[in-house]
Amino acid sequence: QVQLMESGGGLVQAGGSLRLSCAASGSIASIHDMGWYRQAPGKQRELVAEITRVGTTHYADFVKERFTISRDNAKNTVYLQMHSLQPEDTAVYYCNADVNTRDTLSTHWGQGTQVTVSS
Predict the structure, then answer these.
(1) Are strands 105-109 and 10-13 parallel, antiparallel or unpaired?
(2) Contact predicate 112/48, CB 8 Å
């Protein structure tokens, strides 16, 4: 059993910053790609950023150098540092991870953490 637990969401004013964390736990042999997605009300879930095990990153165009994804492989944790937040960044943010257990490789999702940016 693998679980992902996000933390760090909340309410922030426009122009503010937040740092999200997501820790994976359970029967983990290794974790490959990890990522952050978000879903705003009435919209589809979209990729925010992703990072490989060796640290190669990819960002959605709307991030525009405001966000930074990083990970700590020893802690099975991925982070998303967000700066210059805008009301349009308001969404539930989900982390995901491609986890290799002893028997399988599968993608797991966290339960989500709410980020609300007020104008």
Answers:
(1) unpaired
(2) no
Residue type, 105: L
Closest CA to 36 of 11, 12, 19: 19
Q: What is the largest CA-CA distance in the chain?
A: 48
Structure tokens at 31: 């974790």
Does the structure show a pLDDT above 90 at 102? no
Give the β-pairing of 113-118 and 91-100: antiparallel
**Residue that has been written with the tokens 């964390």 in this structure:** 21
Mean pLDDT of the chain: 96
Compute how many other C-beta atoms are within 10 angstroms of the C-beta atom of residue 87: 11
- DSSP string covering 30-95: EEEEEEEEEE-TTS--EEEEEE-TT--EEE-GGGTTSEEEEEEGGGTEEEEEE-S--GGG-EEEEE
Instruction: Provide the 8-state DSSP code for 14.
Output: T
Distance, CA of 28 to CA of 12 (rounded, Å)? 34
What's the pLDDT at 2? 95
